[in-house]
Structure formats: C-alpha cells, structure tokens
Amino acid sequence: MHKIWIIGTNPPCPRCGLLTHLIETIVSAENKAATVRHLAYTDPKASDFAHTQGLIPGTAKNVARLLDLPIDPVLLNQCYDRRDDPENLPYEPYNQFGWTYALDQYLQPYEQAAKGVGILMTPVLIINGQLKHAGSVPPLTDLTRWLNAL
Prior knowledge:
By secondary structure, the protein is of the alpha/beta class. It has one domain. Helices cover 43% and strands 19% of the residues. The chain has six helices and six strands; from the N terminus they run βαβαβαααβββα. It has helices at residues 14-29, 44-52, 60-67, 73-80, 101-114, 140-148; strands at residues 2-8, 34-40, 56-58, 119-121, 124-127, 130-134. The strands form two sheets. The chain has a four-stranded mixed sheet with strand order 2-1-5-6, with helices on one face. Strands 3-4 form a two-stranded parallel ribbon. A hairpin with a 2-residue loop joins strand 5 (124-127) and strand 6. The longest helix has 16 residues, at 14-29. It starts with a strand and ends with a helix.
C-alpha cells in the first residue's frame, strides 16, 4: 500500500485543501492502492518529516515573518478575485476551496525563499516518504506523473 501525505494547514487553506482533494480524487478514480492523509503542519509527524529535510514545517506566513516581508492582505485578497484566469481551468473540477493560480503566483517569492530560512512550506506533498513538492499546488501534469508511477 502506497502512502501519500499532504502537510498543510488545519483547517485547510485554499492551497492545502485543493491539493488534498486533487490527490484523493485521482487516487480514488484510478483505484490506486494508496492511503492519503492530510497532516497539519503542527503535527509531530509533519515535524519529523521536515527534520529529515533539515527544515521545520511552516506556512507562507512563517516565511514572511522570518524574511520581514509581510504578506499584503489587500493584494492577497485580490488573488481570490481572479477566478476567471485561464490557468485555473485545469483545476476547476477539483476546486471547491477558493484557490486561484494568482494566489500561488503571489506567494511564489515566499515559496522560493522558504528553504533558505529553514521552512518546509505548505502545502507539502510526500509520496512513499519522498518529498515531491512543497510551497504551492503543483502542475497537474506532475501530479499525474507521480501518481501514475504508483
């Protein structure tokens, strides 16, 4: 049985919720022999995994504090209004969480800086103990490839 973990916020933020739902839906639709588990980034198992990477689990807010680069709430909220962007379309069947591609784009500087400040940034995707992606919702092509390899 394959093990898939998504480390995120609890309750899930739009990014963590979408990634978890995507994985659960694909695993179920393709009858993969896998268990899918959403772990809060504060869960001891999330901390244990992050430590194997030399990091601690955290969110974009944690990265922002360490960088002293605040997340602008006005700009962040504007990301949620960009539901008509074409980049959202492939995710639309799974997206009941308010995620937008603009949200991941806005948080990309925090994602890029996360490891440098010691953070394994949510959402985190781990398949069979191997880190596949962290800090954003990965492209569907990558998810499909990773899950097809199971």
